Amino acid sequence: MVHYRRNRVPGGSYFFTVTLHDRRSDLLVQHIDILRKSFAAVMAARPFIIDAIVVMPEHLHAIWTLPPEDADYPGRWRAIKARFTQRLRQYTHEPLRSPWQSRFWEHTLRNDADFQRHVDYIHYNPVKHGHVSIAADWPYSSFHRYVKTGLYAPDWGTNDIAGDFGEPQ
User: Which of 8, 61, 117, 136 has the smallest set of CB atoms within 10 Å of its CB?
Assistant: First the structure.
């Protein structure tokens, strides 16, 4: 059996892709409040910064920066997934199995250009998947925070935007 080795850099910034088992599901946006509360509870207990995030119907992408001398992002993801699943069970009153894929994909961000490329990828993702024609129309994204702080123009992320956004073609 091949064992995947995760790169752990204390205080590092990481790009994540976290996915549900059912790729046709809309569970994450249908229960966005439960997901938000799950993140908030874990962040209160084990702080980290969400630099960028987009929640899609069946997956999410995020960039986190961990505190100095802390590299335990797997523990945080376990806690977020478990809390979401537990709260979802309480909401539905059904003994559901976890909706999450057990694994997740991470990439340690190497420099400012790598960071920005992944921020752009995150914010363009709803357009890429055809959910909206402009990034500003997707409500479950840190894109709106980036516009408020002047890092993006409100019309950024149209269908004709150029860039590979860190993903091979």
Answer: 8
